[in-house]
Amino acid sequence: MNKFNVVAFSIACGLIWGIYVFMLAFTAMWWGLGTKFIEILGNIYIGVNASVAGAFLGFAWAFIDAFVGALIFVLLYNYLAPKFK
Hints:
This protein is mostly helical. It contains three helices and no strands. The mean pLDDT is 95.
């Protein structure tokens, strides 16, 4: 049975979520789209708002959050998958 590469999968998930939050912050800043979601994320991730600094903070927080979440997911998957052949 093939196992997931824990680090590669975690980095990929972190980058996807981080880039999404980064781009959403700029979209909210330039065009006013997604401002409610950015406000919600600002309650979860400290410093996230519709600004340049908020976009970079959003990327950092989102990357860490998704990296850790994916890391836990893949470790659990790699542990449980062989038990369900």
